[in-house]
Design brief:
Layout (H helix, E strand, L loop, with lengths): L7 E4 L5 H11 L3 E6 L22 H4 L4 E4 L5 H11 L4 E4 L5 H4 L4 H7 L4 E6 L14 H7 L20 H24 L4 E5 H6 L5 H8 L16 E5 L5 E5 L3 H10 L14 H6 L1 H12 L4 H10 L4 E3 L3 H6 L1 H5 L3 E6 L3 E6 L23 H9 L3 H9 L4
Parallel strand pairs: 1-2, 1-4, 2-3, 4-5, 5-6
Antiparallel strand pairs: 7-8, 8-9, 10-11
Length: 396
């Protein structure tokens, strides 16, 4: 048994944030039924890199473990189908613009009247309330307003973004977390509730003490490149073979061990670097000394030497490095899942790992509308004639 076995989820919306929440629920055993527009489906079916045959490779991951049905949500008949489905599910995920579900008669109050136990996860850029609620909220904008973009990059250049849609995935995780908390509450009270997961607040929640630093001392954290100001040595250092090694030896004992490995134990007692604050005050000078040592050795040698000494060190991995790393293999951090069209495809495994009820990936993303008949007949007891009529009318 997976931890969420028996939980039914209706996933509406598209692209990344809401569907990533659905992916996490499916990973841990929920029966996630994804609603997609007929003929076109979720744009995620076409997003991202493709293989040499032109087949997109993101969809099998973000839609893994789910079932797909089609509904033309512009039609009243499709909206009625959703009302009936809402009466049969535990969780409904949507990430439309604020007010769209209400326009369809599918707002939380309307659906709660049908199913008081329903948990509705609503993922938007700016949340369901407030003066910005009606704004379109893509992750890029919300990452900026949540504070992440301002501190990302180097001080002499414009802000940069991570190479992933981090705001969307953080919001998806927030929705997942909220759904689990709401399930726990429902187990105790029998009542469902709404989970309001905004992208900008999902970003804001991981911004450490930037707000408190300003409020308490007027300090605005600035872009600092590959370092955190005052935390040293902790940086990316050049190796002889052209690679970069990440070393984190900013603790006193870690720093002493680093100095021993470098063959320069006297640096541990040098007044410039003798404690945490001194190392922070002389960060640039200390980084230069560490870099002078690392450039004399290949990256792998540096990692081995420091790891043996108990000093945190590692390489900046690409996907190619992950695929060949023995630790990734031992922990099954990457797994291969059979896809009916792509064959076996590698992807990140389910995480976190649970000792008694682990999650698992049952299948890759489904074909468009692959499970429409099964869900409508199995969840709603529609007969074949009724399903055929809906299909003929363009509802499914």
């Amino acid at each position: 048994m997976k931890p969420l076995s028996g939980i039914r989820v209706l996933e509406m919306g598209q692209l990344i944030a809401g569907p990533f929440c659905g992916q996490l629920l499916a990973d841990f055993g929920a029966d996630v039924v994804k609603v997609e527009p007929p003929k076109t489906g979720d744009p995620m079916r076409q997003w991202g890199r493709a293989n040499d045959k032109g087949q997109p490779l993101w969809w099998p991951v973000i839609a893994r473990g789910k079932r797909s049905i089609t509904l033309n949500m512009r039609l009243p008949e499709a909206q009625q189908v959703v009302r009936e489905l809402a009466g049969e599910v535990d969780i409904l995920i949507e990430n439309f613009r604020v007010g769209r579900m209400e326009e369809w008669g599918l707002g939380y109050d309307a659906l709660k009247a049908i199913n008081p136990r329903l948990i509705m996860v609503r993922v938007t850029g700016f949340g369901q309330t407030g003066p910005y609620a009606d704004r379109a909220g893509f992750a890029s904008v919300c990452e900026a307003m949540g504070g992440m973009r301002y501190i990302a990059g180097y001080p002499d250049r414009p802000p940069v973004r991570a190479g992933i849609s981090i705001g969307d995935t953080l919001a998806g995780q927030s929705g997942f977390q909220g759904a689990l908390l709401a399930l726990h509450h429902r187990d105790r009270t029998g009542e469902g509730q709404m989970v309001d997961a905004s992208i900008f607040e999902s970003v804001l929640s991981v911004m450490e003490a930037v707000v408190s630093e300003y409020d308490g001392g007027g300090h605005i954290r600035e872009r600092s490149g590959s370092i955190l100001p005052g935390i040293a040595p902790s940086n990316a250092y050049p190796a002889k073979d052209g690679k970069m090694v990440i070393i984190g030896a900013n603790g006193d004992s870690l720093y002493r061990r680093l100095c021993e490995v470098m063959g320069q134990p006297e640096l541990a007692t040098d007044p410039r670097f003798v404690n945490h604050r001194a190392r922070g005050d002389n960060q640039t000078e200390l980084d230069a000394l560490v870099g002078e040592w690392t450039i004399q050795h290949d990256a792998g040698e540096i990692v081995d030497l420091l790891s043996d000494a108990g000093v945190p060190a590692g390489l900046t991995y690409t996907a190619a490095d992950m695929m060949t790393d023995p630790h990734f293999a031992a922990r099954q951090s990457i797994t291969r899942v059979e896809d009916p069209e792509l064959g076996p495809i590698a992807m990140q495994n389910v995480f976190p790992k649970l000792s008694a009820t682990p999650g698992a990936i049952e299948k890759t993303g489904p074909k468009l509308g692959e499970h429409t008949d099964d869900v409508l007949s199995g969840w709603l007891n529609y007969d074949a004639e009724r399903i055929a009529a809906l299909r003929s009318a363009g509802v499914v």
